[in-house]
Amino acid sequence: MFSSKRATKEEALKKIKNYCAYQERSHNEVKEKLYSFGLYKVQTEEILSILIEENYLNEERFAKQFAGGKFRMKQWGRRKIQYELQQKGVNKVNIKLGLKEIEEEQYLSVLQKLASKKWKELSGQQYLVRQARTTGYLLQKGYEPSLISNVISSISKG
């Protein structure tokens, strides 16, 4: 149900500071939250600039934390992370900085581990089915097709 009470600028600032302190947020997430408080565009822009000045809101820091976290916790590939950051309205420069948080050696190691695990799960299947399903799984996780084909060819030989 929609409440007709609008938050004052001061109330909204206090609430949104707690919201930002809890975890890193993108500018769009914070903007949407402020609009949900019933604030006008001018008030929202003023609060956003205060949050940026006081370092509650930093899109570069958000992108780095998001990319690193999704890779470590959910083992997402770069393409999926990039797509999700774009959906959150993060600019291209900050997306690139965020993706740099992922070390290449670790990235390839995780890809190898995921591919091997999936390949073993499909051990009863025909070769082409195994190859297609493993590729599909890794694409869905957001890994690059060229890296996937290299990993699958090395696993299938081994």
TrEMBL record:
GO terms for cellular component: cytoplasm. Residues 58-95 form the RecX second three-helical domain. The keyword Cytoplasm applies. Its main location: cytoplasm. Pfam families: RecX_HTH2, RecX_HTH3. The keyword Cytoplasm applies. Residues 105-152 form the RecX third three-helical domain. One of its GO terms (biological process) is regulation of DNA repair. Keywords: Cytoplasm. HAMAP family: RecX. Belongs to the RecX family. This is Regulatory protein RecX. It comes from Segetibacter aerophilus. The lineage of its organism: Bacteria, Pseudomonadati, Bacteroidota, Chitinophagia, Chitinophagales. The gene is recX.
